[in-house]
């Protein structure tokens, strides 16, 4: 029996989601794409999971679309597949819990965009990021045409899109794509340390800040001010706010519960 192409393991309150096609450097497949959508939707309903890590098995994070499968593709197949990829991206963005991409090796094409769909990126020093679509005569899909210009501005985004040149982990950090760069042997421990902070934080507030920050790109200042005004009363009524205030006054660390 073939191994599952998407592995999900819960450790404590973190779901570790592994792209598991190491023989093709975790090129995306329908099973992986649909699995991400299904997994994120399940995690949204699971109160025991406070955060998610997406990583790749073997020597790479993800090399994007499977070039071998492209030989047999036709416009109808591609339109249907990209629609499924879109659902995976939306599931990541709509999840009111932090999602961290743990990147090593190649992070290419739709794999690059998968990382961009996450909230934070921790990268090993050996990571290489390539917006490779232009090399095979395609546009960037999986959200790349949305995420990259908003992250970098139109001119720098177009440079990466038009030329498809690789950038190192340190270059990606300097551009604001990557949050943290660590030696390869420290990637796992650095990700675990970050997740420990996130899942022990006020999960309700973190989840709402994620959704509101993403909403800001398509909203006016007035709309965002109204959204903040509508959301803050719910935060004030939360257990975590009360615990945070009490802990501050008692000069101790708060014990947040995400509610």
UniProtKB/TrEMBL annotation:
Protein name: Enoyl-CoA hydratase
A GO term for molecular function: lyase activity
Cleavable signal peptide: none
GO biological process: fatty acid beta-oxidation
Highest taxon in the source lineage: Bacteria
Family annotation (SUPFAM superfamilies): ClpP/crotonase (SSF52096)
Family membership: Belongs to the enoyl-CoA hydratase/isomerase family.
PROSITE patterns: ENOYL_COA_HYDRATASE
Coiled coil residues, start to end: none
PANTHER family assigned to the protein according to its UniProt record, in alphabetical order: 1,2-EPOXYPHENYLACETYL-COA ISOMERASE (PTHR11941:SF133), ENOYL-COA HYDRATASE-RELATED (PTHR11941)
Transmembrane segments: none
Alphabetic keyword roster: Lyase
Keyword Ribosomal protein set for record: no
């Amino acid at each position: 029996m073939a191994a599952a192409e998407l592995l999900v393991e819960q450790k404590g309150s973190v779901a570790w989601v592994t792209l598991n096609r190491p023989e093709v450097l975790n090129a995306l497949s329908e099973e992986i794409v649909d699995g991400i959508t299904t997994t994120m939707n399940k995690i949204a309903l699971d109160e025991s999971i406070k955060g998610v890590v997406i990583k790749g098995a073997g020597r790479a994070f993800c090399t994007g679309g499977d070039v071998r499968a492209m030989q047999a593709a036709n416009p109808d197949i591609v339109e249907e597949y990209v629609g499924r990829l879109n659902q995976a991206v939306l599931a990541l963005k709509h999840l009111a819990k932090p999602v961290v991409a743990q990147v090593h090796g190649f992070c290419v094409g739709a794999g690059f965009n998968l990382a961009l769909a996450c909230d934070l990126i921790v990268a090993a020093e050996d990571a290489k990021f390539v917006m490779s679509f232009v090399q095979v005569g395609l546009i960037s899909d999986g959200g790349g045409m949305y995420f990259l210009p908003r992250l970098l501005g139109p001119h720098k985004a177009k440079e990466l899109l038009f030329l498809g040149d690789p950038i190192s982990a340190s270059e990606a950090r300097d551009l604001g794509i990557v949050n943290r760069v660590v030696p390869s042997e420290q990637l796992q421990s650095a990700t675990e340390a970050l997740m420990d902070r996130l899942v022990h934080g006020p999960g309700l507030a973190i989840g709402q800040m994620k959704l509101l920050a993403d909403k800001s790109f398509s909203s006016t200042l007035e709309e965002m001010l109204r959204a903040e005004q509508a959301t803050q009363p719910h935060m004030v009524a939360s257990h975590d706010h009360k615990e945070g205030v009490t802990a501050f006054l008692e000069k101790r660390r708060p014990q947040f519960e995400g509610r």
